[in-house]
Amino acid sequence: MAQQGAERVPILEARLVSKRFGNTIALNEATLICQPGSIHALVGENGAGKSTLIKIVAGVVTPDSGTIKIEGRESTIHSPADAARQGIVPVFQELSLFPDLTVAENIAISNPPRNRLGLVSRSELRRQTEKICAELGFEHLDPNALISEIPLAQRQLVEIAKALAHNPRLLILDEGTSALSVQDVDLVFQVIRRMRDQGRSVIFISHRMSEVKEIADTLTIFRDGQDVGSFPMGAVSNEEMVQLMIGRKLEQVFPPKPAVAEPRTPMLEVDNLSWEPALHNISLRVGKGEIVGLGGLDGQGQGELLFALFGVLRGVQGNVRVDGRDVRILSPAVATSDSIRMAFIPEDRKTEGLILPMSVGDNAVLAVIDRLLNQFGLVDRQKERDAVQKMVEQMQVKLSSERAPVRSLSGGNQQKVVMGKWLLTDAKIYLLHDPTRGIDVGTKQEIYQLMRQLADNGAAILFFSTELSELVGMCDRVLVLYEGRIFRELSGETINEEDIVSAALGLNAAVQH
User: Fold this and answer.
1) Degrees (nearest 5) of the Cα angle 130, 156, 398?
2) What phi-psi label fits residue 454: left (phi over 0), alpha (psi between -120 and 50 degrees) or beta?
3) Residue 449 in contact with residue 473, Cβ under 8 Å?
4) N-terminal to C-terminal alpha carbon distance within the chain
5) Mean pLDDT by 10 residues, the chain (513 residues)
6) In the prediction, which pLDDT does 207 show?
7) What is the DSSP letter of 353?
């Protein structure tokens, strides 16, 4: 195991930590040592044990065995408040914000400023929040905005600001950048580099390998509940890292693209679609068997475009044709009807794609429940079981029981359920909003294979991703949005990271639509 700053006492030593949930072994004598003044990346597939370990360190979960030392002192962490008192503050992938409170109220939730009467001082609350956001570079956050009314990326920044307001010695970011734009990731990286320079430490968990390589000093890899190697960043190749993570070679990340000699028959056609102020005269075509990417910096209208096509937004102008027929998609019910057969994989699986307290099976059949009714209008249980089993087998969902709450699954398996429930509908148009966000490399590859298989079977796929490599590796064409317009269309050799970034910044091309 590589040691950095060995002459200093580690800020965290978690040794031989084990945890079992029923018959499932989440951790099996795992070890993680984090040095002061270090950014320590923790990588591995979903279900490898990373999140369980940090939940133990953060006081959310109690270990069955093992020892934890904080700055050389053996510690038992009883709760998140106890962890915070010892200088450990996490930012989990599942946000802990109150949607009906403001940005300022959420950031100061544990210790709001009070006046002489013991009441919360609204003016001081705003001043304090503005000061914190200015120090972090998050000035674009509105202290008075309700959490429910700001986009996911800004909610993620609020969660990070809330954690940093505690001035932690050890910050844990568990997929803390998964919803962020490139610009916001840069802001967060500046913050955690300053923490490192101050002698504080960060545990950084991300499935974006480009981010891990850019920010981390040290890398620890987890597989099947165990640490399988710790290295100085750069000491192992991408191929070696992936092989350690998944226990096998990743022969090819993206499936090969088909060679197309002639234009495909259009499945989805959009003319002059507008939704002020976010979308302006969008025109596009997606052919049968085609994967068309939506590129551009986050917040340029990609999400609104997908919502508009799925019938979520009101007041959308423009024309839409499906399989050559003019259609008016006024609601998701119309979008999913037999005459249109559209499916939408949303950005946030936990709030938009799943009903977390419900079982895996109940979530799986939500989109096809009408097809499972018998002559009396009741659910045919045999049809339901068959549908759930088909989804589980097709998506290779790892689960203990179909009746288990879907929230008990790892992030990657939750995403498989989100996609699998739409596969049961036999949709012919798929709208995908960053479908691999926050999931591991092995599951990502399975989703890539599924996307190409759907396209090969004639489906039309409109695909927004915040990862440039996915747009390059998966898409037959890429439409780059800039300020709510299609700024440039890329195909063939022009689908590369340089041209996508250039167009995303509004450079080197005139508006084409």
Assistant:
1) 165
2) alpha
3) no
4) 55
5) 58 95 85 96 83 93 95 93 94 86 91 80 89 92 92 90 93 86 88 94 87 93 91 87 71 79 87 93 96 87 94 95 95 93 89 87 88 84 90 87 87 88 92 86 87 94 89 94 92 88 70 41
6) 75
7) I
Spatial CA neighbour of 454 closest among 296, 342, 363: 342
Tell whether omega for the bond before 277 is within 30 degrees of 0, i.e. cis.
yes
Give the separation between CA 94 and CA 101, rounded to whole angstroms: 17
Q: Angle at CA 293, nearest 5°, toward 212 and 291?
A: 115
CA 140 to chain CA centroid, Å, is 22
Rounded to 5 degrees, φ, ψ at 284 are -160, 165
354/346 Cα distance (integer angstroms): 10
Give the 3-state secondary structure of residue 47. Answer: coil
DSSP state of 17: E
- The DSSP string of 222-290 is EETTEEEEEEETTSS-HHHHHHHHHSS----SSPPPPP-SSPPPEEEEEEEEEETTTEEEEEEEEETT-
264-341+427-513 CATH fold? Rossmann fold (3.40.50)
Evaluate whether 423 touches 364 at the Cβ level (below 8 Å). Answer: no
Question: Is-contact 463 294, C-beta < 8 A?
Answer: yes
Nearest by Cα to 513 from 347, 297, 303, 294 = 294
Q: Identity (one letter) of the amino acid at 221? A: I
Report the pLDDT value the prediction gives residue 264, as an integer from 0 to 100: 87
Separation of alpha carbons 474 and 95, rounded Å: 30
- Residue 496's identity, in one-letter code, is N
Overall fold of domain 12-246:
Rossmann fold (3.40.50)
433, containing H or E segment: strand 429-433
- Specify whether the backbone of 438 is left (phi greater than 0), alpha (psi in -120 to 50) or beta: left
Nearest to 181 by CA among 215, 157, 145: 157
- Give yes or no for a contact between 487 and 512, defined as CB atoms under 8 angstroms apart: yes
Rounded to whole angstroms, the Cα distance separating 403 from 360 reads 6
Helical ranges in 21-109 per DSSP H = 50-57, 80-85, 103-107
Partnered with residue 33 across adjacent β-strands are 13
Token readout for 171 is 């910050």
CA torsion through residues 262, 265, 266, 267, sign: negative
The contacts of residue 62 (CB under 8 Å, 6+ apart) are: 56
What is the pLDDT, as a whole number, of residue 28? 93
What angle (nearest 5°) sits at the alpha carbon of residue 367, between those of residues 361 and 368?
85
* Three-class secondary structure assignment of 92-124: CCCCCCCCCCEHHHHHCCCCCCECCCCCECHHH
Give the residue range(s) of CATH 3.40.50.300 domains in the chain: 12-246, 264-341+427-513
